[in-house]
Design goal:
The chain is mostly beta strands. Helix content is 4%, strand content 56%. It contains one helix and 21 strands. A five-stranded antiparallel beta sheet has the order 14-15-16-17-18, with no helix packed on it. Strands 1-21-20-19 form a four-stranded antiparallel beta sheet, with no helix packed on it. β8 and β9 form a beta hairpin. The chain is globular.
Protein backbone atom coordinates (compact mmCIF):
# COMPACT_ATOMS: atom_id res chain seq x y z
CA UNK A 1 0.00 0.00 0.00
CA UNK A 2 3.07 2.24 -0.15
CA UNK A 3 2.37 3.07 -3.80
CA UNK A 4 -0.56 5.40 -4.32
CA UNK A 5 -1.77 8.28 -6.44
CA UNK A 6 -3.77 11.21 -5.09
CA UNK A 7 -5.43 13.62 -7.49
CA UNK A 8 -8.06 16.33 -7.34
CA UNK A 9 -11.07 14.90 -9.16
CA UNK A 10 -13.58 17.75 -9.01
CA UNK A 11 -14.91 20.69 -7.01
CA UNK A 12 -18.48 20.92 -5.76
CA UNK A 13 -19.85 24.44 -5.45
CA UNK A 14 -22.49 24.80 -2.74
CA UNK A 15 -21.02 22.68 0.08
CA UNK A 16 -18.72 23.93 2.80
CA UNK A 17 -16.88 22.05 5.57
CA UNK A 18 -17.53 18.60 4.08
CA UNK A 19 -17.04 16.06 6.85
CA UNK A 20 -18.21 12.80 5.29
CA UNK A 21 -19.18 11.24 1.99
CA UNK A 22 -20.40 7.94 0.59
CA UNK A 23 -20.63 6.69 -2.99
CA UNK A 24 -23.68 4.53 -3.69
CA UNK A 25 -25.27 3.41 -6.95
CA UNK A 26 -23.61 6.13 -9.05
CA UNK A 27 -24.54 8.86 -6.58
CA UNK A 28 -22.33 10.74 -4.13
CA UNK A 29 -23.86 11.73 -0.81
CA UNK A 30 -22.10 14.22 1.46
CA UNK A 31 -22.61 15.87 4.85
CA UNK A 32 -21.02 18.94 6.42
CA UNK A 33 -20.43 19.36 10.13
CA UNK A 34 -22.01 22.83 10.12
CA UNK A 35 -25.13 21.94 8.13
CA UNK A 36 -28.55 20.33 8.61
CA UNK A 37 -28.54 19.07 5.02
CA UNK A 38 -27.69 15.93 3.09
CA UNK A 39 -26.08 16.77 -0.25
CA UNK A 40 -26.54 14.54 -3.30
CA UNK A 41 -24.07 15.23 -6.11
CA UNK A 42 -24.46 13.72 -9.58
CA UNK A 43 -20.92 13.22 -10.86
CA UNK A 44 -22.00 13.00 -14.51
CA UNK A 45 -24.36 16.00 -14.67
CA UNK A 46 -22.64 17.98 -11.89
CA UNK A 47 -26.06 18.69 -10.39
CA UNK A 48 -26.30 19.20 -6.62
CA UNK A 49 -29.46 18.43 -4.65
CA UNK A 50 -30.00 19.26 -0.99
CA UNK A 51 -32.31 17.53 1.48
CA UNK A 52 -33.06 19.09 4.86
CA UNK A 53 -32.95 16.80 7.89
CA UNK A 54 -35.01 19.18 10.04
CA UNK A 55 -38.75 19.80 9.79
CA UNK A 56 -40.34 22.77 8.09
CA UNK A 57 -41.01 24.52 11.42
CA UNK A 58 -37.28 24.83 12.09
CA UNK A 59 -36.42 28.54 11.96
CA UNK A 60 -32.63 28.46 12.23
CA UNK A 61 -29.93 28.42 9.59
CA UNK A 62 -29.61 25.25 7.54
CA UNK A 63 -26.01 25.89 6.47
CA UNK A 64 -23.02 27.62 8.05
CA UNK A 65 -24.60 26.99 11.43
CA UNK A 66 -22.60 28.69 14.24
CA UNK A 67 -20.14 26.35 15.97
CA UNK A 68 -22.01 26.32 19.29
CA UNK A 69 -25.27 25.29 17.60
CA UNK A 70 -24.18 22.99 14.79
CA UNK A 71 -25.29 19.33 14.81
CA UNK A 72 -21.71 18.30 13.93
CA UNK A 73 -22.59 15.54 11.49
CA UNK A 74 -19.25 13.81 11.00
CA UNK A 75 -20.13 10.37 9.65
CA UNK A 76 -22.41 8.95 6.97
CA UNK A 77 -23.44 5.38 6.21
CA UNK A 78 -26.03 3.49 4.16
CA UNK A 79 -27.94 0.34 5.07
CA UNK A 80 -30.41 -0.96 2.46
CA UNK A 81 -32.35 2.12 1.30
CA UNK A 82 -31.66 4.14 4.45
CA UNK A 83 -28.99 6.78 4.82
CA UNK A 84 -27.82 7.68 8.32
CA UNK A 85 -25.72 10.67 9.40
CA UNK A 86 -24.17 10.65 12.85
CA UNK A 87 -23.58 13.54 15.19
CA UNK A 88 -20.15 13.36 16.78
CA UNK A 89 -21.37 13.19 20.38
CA UNK A 90 -18.69 15.73 21.35
CA UNK A 91 -21.31 18.01 22.96
CA UNK A 92 -24.84 17.61 24.32
CA UNK A 93 -26.43 18.99 21.14
CA UNK A 94 -24.44 16.61 18.90
CA UNK A 95 -26.12 13.33 19.87
CA UNK A 96 -28.58 12.98 16.98
CA UNK A 97 -28.56 10.57 14.03
CA UNK A 98 -30.28 11.87 10.89
CA UNK A 99 -32.22 9.32 8.84
CA UNK A 100 -33.61 9.47 5.31
CA UNK A 101 -34.72 7.12 2.53
CA UNK A 102 -32.36 7.53 -0.42
CA UNK A 103 -34.92 6.19 -2.90
CA UNK A 104 -37.90 8.37 -1.95
CA UNK A 105 -35.98 11.22 -0.20
CA UNK A 106 -38.39 10.83 2.74
CA UNK A 107 -36.84 12.20 5.93
CA UNK A 108 -37.63 10.42 9.18
CA UNK A 109 -37.46 11.81 12.74
CA UNK A 110 -33.97 11.99 14.18
CA UNK A 111 -32.73 9.05 16.23
CA UNK A 112 -31.68 10.16 19.70
CA UNK A 113 -28.28 8.57 20.30
CA UNK A 114 -27.61 10.19 23.71
CA UNK A 115 -28.11 6.96 25.69
CA UNK A 116 -26.21 4.91 23.12
CA UNK A 117 -23.27 7.31 23.21
CA UNK A 118 -23.26 7.27 27.01
CA UNK A 119 -23.24 3.46 26.97
CA UNK A 120 -20.36 3.50 24.50
CA UNK A 121 -18.39 5.89 26.69
CA UNK A 122 -19.01 3.70 29.72
CA UNK A 123 -18.14 0.48 27.91
CA UNK A 124 -14.98 1.90 26.38
CA UNK A 125 -14.05 3.77 29.57
CA UNK A 126 -13.83 6.98 27.57
CA UNK A 127 -14.52 10.36 29.16
CA UNK A 128 -16.93 12.81 27.48
CA UNK A 129 -13.92 15.04 26.68
CA UNK A 130 -12.35 12.19 24.68
CA UNK A 131 -15.52 10.98 22.92
CA UNK A 132 -15.84 12.09 19.29
CA UNK A 133 -17.43 9.84 16.64
CA UNK A 134 -16.00 10.74 13.22
CA UNK A 135 -16.59 7.64 11.11
CA UNK A 136 -19.44 5.17 10.61
CA UNK A 137 -19.29 2.00 8.52
CA UNK A 138 -22.16 -0.44 7.98
CA UNK A 139 -21.69 -4.13 7.25
CA UNK A 140 -25.17 -5.66 7.43
CA UNK A 141 -26.24 -5.82 11.07
CA UNK A 142 -22.76 -4.76 12.19
CA UNK A 143 -21.75 -1.13 12.55
CA UNK A 144 -18.25 0.21 13.11
CA UNK A 145 -18.07 3.64 14.75
CA UNK A 146 -14.65 5.27 14.83
CA UNK A 147 -13.73 7.44 17.80
CA UNK A 148 -11.32 10.23 16.95
CA UNK A 149 -8.58 10.66 19.50
CA UNK A 150 -8.30 14.43 19.40
CA UNK A 151 -9.26 14.86 23.05
CA UNK A 152 -6.87 15.24 25.99
CA UNK A 153 -5.95 11.51 26.17
CA UNK A 154 -5.78 10.90 22.38
CA UNK A 155 -8.18 7.94 22.50
CA UNK A 156 -8.45 6.39 19.03
CA UNK A 157 -10.70 3.36 18.97
CA UNK A 158 -13.37 1.39 17.13
CA UNK A 159 -16.77 0.47 18.53
CA UNK A 160 -18.27 -2.64 16.94
CA UNK A 161 -22.05 -2.54 17.34
CA UNK A 162 -24.31 -5.48 16.52
CA UNK A 163 -28.03 -4.76 16.52
CA UNK A 164 -30.66 -2.39 15.21
CA UNK A 165 -29.81 1.25 14.73
CA UNK A 166 -33.38 2.58 14.69
CA UNK A 167 -33.84 1.42 18.28
CA UNK A 168 -30.16 2.01 19.18
CA UNK A 169 -30.16 -1.44 20.80
CA UNK A 170 -26.74 -2.96 20.33
CA UNK A 171 -24.20 -5.37 21.68
CA UNK A 172 -21.02 -3.33 22.01
CA UNK A 173 -17.37 -4.29 21.55
CA UNK A 174 -14.62 -1.70 21.87
CA UNK A 175 -11.04 -1.93 20.61
CA UNK A 176 -8.46 0.81 21.18
CA UNK A 177 -6.34 1.38 18.07
CA UNK A 178 -2.79 2.73 18.03
CA UNK A 179 -2.17 5.13 15.17
CA UNK A 180 1.07 6.71 13.91
CA UNK A 181 2.30 10.27 14.10
CA UNK A 182 2.80 12.64 11.19
CA UNK A 183 5.70 15.07 11.64
CA UNK A 184 5.48 14.50 15.38
CA UNK A 185 1.71 15.07 15.61
CA UNK A 186 -0.58 12.21 16.58
CA UNK A 187 -2.91 11.02 13.80
CA UNK A 188 -6.56 10.58 14.79
CA UNK A 189 -9.43 8.77 13.04
CA UNK A 190 -11.58 10.84 10.68
CA UNK A 191 -13.45 8.18 8.66
CA UNK A 192 -13.46 4.63 7.34
CA UNK A 193 -14.90 2.32 4.69
CA UNK A 194 -14.87 -1.40 3.95
CA UNK A 195 -13.09 -2.64 0.83
CA UNK A 196 -11.76 -6.07 -0.11
CA UNK A 197 -12.80 -7.42 3.29
CA UNK A 198 -10.71 -4.87 5.19
CA UNK A 199 -11.49 -1.64 7.01
CA UNK A 200 -9.64 1.19 5.29
CA UNK A 201 -9.44 4.38 7.33
CA UNK A 202 -8.10 7.89 7.15
CA UNK A 203 -6.63 9.65 10.16
CA UNK A 204 -5.66 13.31 10.29
CA UNK A 205 -2.91 14.86 12.39
CA UNK A 206 -4.14 18.12 13.89
CA UNK A 207 -2.28 19.90 16.65
CA UNK A 208 -5.08 20.22 19.21
CA UNK A 209 -6.12 18.55 22.46
CA UNK A 210 -9.81 19.31 22.03
CA UNK A 211 -12.74 17.55 20.34
CA UNK A 212 -14.28 21.02 19.95
CA UNK A 213 -11.47 23.33 18.78
CA UNK A 214 -9.51 23.03 15.54
CA UNK A 215 -5.73 23.09 15.32
CA UNK A 216 -2.86 23.31 12.83
CA UNK A 217 -2.95 20.47 10.27
CA UNK A 218 0.08 18.18 9.84
CA UNK A 219 -1.45 15.83 7.26
CA UNK A 220 -3.46 12.65 6.75
CA UNK A 221 -2.62 8.95 6.80
CA UNK A 222 -4.41 6.07 5.07
CA UNK A 223 -4.49 2.76 6.92
CA UNK A 224 -5.87 -0.75 6.68
CA UNK A 225 -7.30 -2.80 9.54
CA UNK A 226 -7.83 -6.54 9.76
CA UNK A 227 -11.40 -6.77 11.09
CA UNK A 228 -10.97 -10.25 12.57
CA UNK A 229 -7.98 -9.22 14.67
CA UNK A 230 -8.81 -5.50 14.90
CA UNK A 231 -5.20 -4.70 14.18
CA UNK A 232 -3.68 -2.10 11.90
CA UNK A 233 -1.87 -3.90 9.06
CA UNK A 234 -0.42 -0.99 7.08
CA UNK A 235 -0.38 2.80 7.00
CA UNK A 236 0.92 5.37 4.56
CA UNK A 237 1.00 9.17 4.73
CA UNK A 238 -1.01 10.45 1.76
CA UNK A 239 -0.68 14.17 2.49
CA UNK A 240 1.29 16.44 4.79
CA UNK A 241 -1.07 19.41 4.35
CA UNK A 242 -4.65 18.15 3.84
CA UNK A 243 -7.07 17.21 6.61
CA UNK A 244 -9.21 14.63 4.87
CA UNK A 245 -12.39 13.86 6.81
CA UNK A 246 -14.33 11.54 4.51
CA UNK A 247 -13.48 8.37 2.58
CA UNK A 248 -15.64 6.07 0.45
CA UNK A 249 -14.93 3.22 -1.94
CA UNK A 250 -15.35 4.38 -5.53
CA UNK A 251 -14.08 1.63 -7.83
CA UNK A 252 -12.36 -1.73 -7.45
CA UNK A 253 -10.58 -4.05 -9.84
CA UNK A 254 -8.25 -7.03 -9.54
CA UNK A 255 -5.20 -4.93 -8.71
CA UNK A 256 -6.30 -1.57 -7.30
CA UNK A 257 -8.82 0.20 -5.10
CA UNK A 258 -10.04 3.71 -5.82
CA UNK A 259 -11.38 5.86 -3.00
CA UNK A 260 -12.97 9.29 -2.96
CA UNK A 261 -11.89 11.71 -0.23
CA UNK A 262 -13.32 15.01 0.97
CA UNK A 263 -11.54 17.68 2.95
CA UNK A 264 -12.78 19.90 5.77
CA UNK A 265 -10.94 23.20 5.44
CA UNK A 266 -12.46 24.59 8.67
CA UNK A 267 -13.66 27.77 6.97
CA UNK A 268 -16.94 29.15 5.63
CA UNK A 269 -16.10 28.69 1.93
CA UNK A 270 -19.02 27.09 0.08
CA UNK A 271 -17.05 24.72 -2.09
CA UNK A 272 -15.70 21.23 -1.49
CA UNK A 273 -12.83 19.53 -3.26
CA UNK A 274 -13.16 15.79 -3.85
CA UNK A 275 -9.97 13.80 -4.41
CA UNK A 276 -9.42 10.35 -5.90
CA UNK A 277 -6.97 8.09 -4.08
CA UNK A 278 -5.77 4.98 -5.90
CA UNK A 279 -3.88 2.25 -4.02
CA UNK A 280 -2.67 -1.22 -4.87
CA UNK A 281 -4.39 -4.10 -3.10
Amino acid sequence: MQKFTLELLFRIIGIGSASGLIYHENALYLVADNSHLVYNYNIETKALDKTSLVNKEYAGALENVPKADKPDYEAIAIKDDSLYVFGSGSADNRNLIGHMNIKTKEVYPHIDAADLYLAMQSFGEISPEDFNIEGAVNDGDTWYLLNRGNGPKKVNGIFTLNGTINTTFFQIIYNPIKLPRINGVQATFTDGTIANGKLYFIAAAENTASTYLDGDVAGTVLGRINLDKMKVEKTVVISEKNKFEGITLYKENAKTLEFLLCEDTDNDATETEVYKLTVKK
